[in-house]
Write a structure and sequence with these properties.
49% helix; alpha/beta; 5 strands; 11 helices
Length: 284
């Protein structure tokens, strides 16, 4: 288990990075001049969620016949590369379903736009530069408005899922945990804690081997040591923030069958009051 791509859909780009209004019971109100200006721009722009890059890409394709020589070859190379990369994702199980898969195509669409627009502008003679500059200003303005929307919603509603600011409170709490081992029972916890604590926490993967369909005798022996040590601390996301759903529940159920119960030591919320992490131990 290395990625949550198969566990969490990414249909909503804002819901993947920042929380929506309907997900936030206690939104932050704008207080500084910057956040008030950001909120005002968001309202005036009708809360834009998409930039103009798709339209720019389609326009670039329509203008491709105007390109010649090296420019045309560069456009065709980028298009062929994108098609090949997309086909590889399309025929691979559990690939292409998350944002970091689509990002593998970058910056090829932008390359097509840049080369095609530049080639088309040369056909306009002296008017080419100001026309191209005007088009670029419109495209950049659309992207800046979406970036502002992200910023305002982040300040208002907080980060979603793995972008939550609760990780800072969790990091502060774990510095005083006195744990022999800290097991992460979900994706998206270990690397952030390792970074924030500069590698000083004794972090371990807690999703293996409990996530296997069947456990071997070695797996059971490992789990016995894992849950049987009182100085072992476990961290999981709360239900609404889980990436690998039910893995933590499966571990708790297994521990209960072995004569242990989960003792929650802390519930860590984000700055909007949503409970994000649970820190616990197993006790007999």
């Amino acid at each position: 288990m290395t990625s949550p791509s198969s566990a969490q859909p990414t249909h909503n780009q804002f819901g993947w990075l920042v929380n929506e209004d309907w997900q936030t019971d206690r939104p932050h109100q704008p207080r500084s001049a910057l956040t008030m200006a950001s909120a005002r721009i968001s309202s005036l722009a009708a809360t834009p969620r998409h930039n103009l890059m798709l339209y720019a890409f389609v326009l670039a394709l329509l203008l491709t016949p105007l390109a010649r020589g090296g420019a045309l070859k560069a456009i065709l190379w980028a298009l062929v590369t994108m098609v090949v990369a997309w086909l590889q994702m399309a025929v691979t199980a559990n690939a292409g379903g998350s944002a970091h898969h689509a990002i593998l195509l970058w910056p090829l669409p932008e390359m097509v736009i840049a080369v095609s627009f530049a080639a088309a502008s040369r056909r306009l003679g002296r008017a080419g530069v100001p026309v191209l500059a005007a088009v670029l200003v419109v495209i950049m303005a659309g992207s800046l408005l979406v970036t502002n929307e992200y910023y305002w919603r982040m300040r208002r509603n907080g980060g979603a899922m793995n972008w939550t600011d609760a990780i800072f409170r969790l990091s502060d709490y774990m510095r005083n945990s006195q744990a022999k081992c800290v097991f992460s029972v979900d994706w998206g916890i270990m690397d952030s804690l390792r970074l924030l604590n500069q590698g000083t926490l004794p972090l371990r993967v807690g999703t293996d081997p409990i996530s296997k369909p069947e456990l071997s005798s070695d797996d059971r022996e490992f789990l016995a040591k894992m849950i049987g040590e009182p100085q072992h601390v476990f961290i999981n996301h709360t239900k609404n923030f889980e990436f690998f759903t039910d893995v933590n529940a499966k571990l708790v159920k297994y521990a209960e069958g072995a004569g242990y119960r989960r003792q929650v030591e802390a519930v860590i919320p984000d700055s909007n009051g949503r409970p994000v992490y649970e820190v616990y131990r197993f006790v007999r």
